[in-house]
Amino acid sequence: MNLSFILDITIGLVFIYLILSLLASEIQELITTILQWRAVHLKKSIEILIAGDVSKSEDDNVIQLVNDLYNDPLIQSVNQEAKGFLTTLPRKFVWGLSSILEQFSLSGEKRTKSIFGYVKNGKEDFGKQKHSAPSYIPAETFATTLMETLGLPKLVQKLTESRLINFTHQQLNEIQNILLRLRERVDNTDDSVREFLENIHLEFNQTIEIDFKTITADFQKGKIDLHTSINRIAKSLDKYIGYFAAEMPDHELLSKALQRLKVLRQDIFDDIEQTICLKGLRPNINEVVELLNAKSEIYQEFVNEFKDKDSEAYQTFQHVSQRLEQLSQKLPPSVVSNMATLAKRAQLKAKTTEEGINILRREIEQTFDKSMDRASGVYKRNAKGVALLIGFAIAIIANADTFHIVSRLSKDSAIRTAIVNNAGQIVERNSSDTPQDLKLLRDETDKVLTEISLPIGWNKINLDQQLDMVSNNNSQKTVQITNYLTMVAGWFVSGIAISMGAPFWFDLLGKVVNVRNSGKKPASSTNVQAKEGVH
Length: 535
Hints:
Blueprint: H1 3-35, H2 37-51, H3 60-70, H4 73-78, H5 85-105, E1 118-120, E2 126-129, H6 139-150, H7 152-185, H8 191-220, H9 226-247, H10 252-269, H11 272-278, H12 285-290, H13 297-304, H14 312-330, H15 333-349, H16 353-397, H17 402-411, H18 413-429, H19 438-449, H20 460-467, E3 470-471, E4 477-478, H21 481-499, H22 502-516, H23 525-532
Antiparallel strand pairs: 1-2, 3-4
Helix pairs in contact: 1-16, 1-17, 1-18, 1-21, 1-22, 2-3, 2-16, 6-16, 7-8, 7-10, 8-9, 9-10, 15-16, 16-21, 18-22
């Protein structure tokens, strides 16, 4: 037995494994498409990520939150579907077949639930079931969608608005207190003083209060930023102090009141950035995320500030407060906890709220990527298990007994030669220098099957040789039990080999063919010159 003979048998065995692996890949891809395993596995992985634990991933709040994510336009745009009756007809067939299989695979009330959620209408109610979902979601898309669903960018704005409103109210109260103390202490018998007090109160009502309301309204509409808002408040106060000084009669108490107004202005508005920092007008990302936790101090501070139903703040933030309350009740504790952890990590790196938002988004992206890496490993292990089952099934159905195949190849030179020649041609046409196309490879192997009778199948000749049947004195054929055990073992080996996949066997086939042919065919002089180029 020489090396060439062994290589020929090896090529024949590997080639048969390649043919059966291509069939297995086709079957597995068909099952994957019908059952939408990739999309289902992705959604389940996101539910586990949101829940923080596999055991909690079936919680209704977790599923509802993930369904909300899947209803977001950003994620919906990832799942591109064809339109038109003829183009959607195959999809509808797959959806129908998939739903039938789901009825058998799910139990209890789960049968009535949609795997991918429901199509959300514009009225906060749900329409028909969703039959499909994306098989892949970019980390950036997921992070942006999660932050938008939780309303974090909007919470930044609203929390800043609430603190700006409170800040303006504090300054108004400070000015009012100065004016009230002045009125209590000044002798109102002096006509000029009494007229001045009336005028400065009127000016306060018509200038300061109206200006402050206009400034906060402009900030809420996004016309100005926080720094500009505080600067405008300072200018409004400057205008009032100027009016106070210009109209003020010569009186000691009035002079002291003017001095207190100037001190207030200097103390609060000389360094605007310092005031924004000390007053906490610009919330950090950690404070924003804390709003999601109904038990946090930030949440209580936000809600308690707007209990007065007649106040401007209540009218402005009523919807936000209700939304926060609903969100805090529905959010899984794991989401609140995980977001708080990521927010604290982002806060350490951020200098501004906007920067904190961007860093938090990147933190979510990194967490998502790591989770999907683990989920990908789980999917591959599950796919490998399915591949093994398909491999064993094909080995039995095709009666692909590895030991019998080796025996036939070693004895039948015609089959061996035909397989080796065709395998060599296929390897040469699908060399590693060009991208491997499994569909083209499948078509080429199908042509080979029409020309060669492989040593597989349940035909009588094959079974007689496989089981080594012998005739006894009564002309009846008998089979030893060891032959059956050998056949089963051969199926087992073939099943494992088939599950390894067509790319593996094609690469191995190419290596073995090259060894048999004493290495790769040398490149032509034209190819060499093209590769070397001009140096």
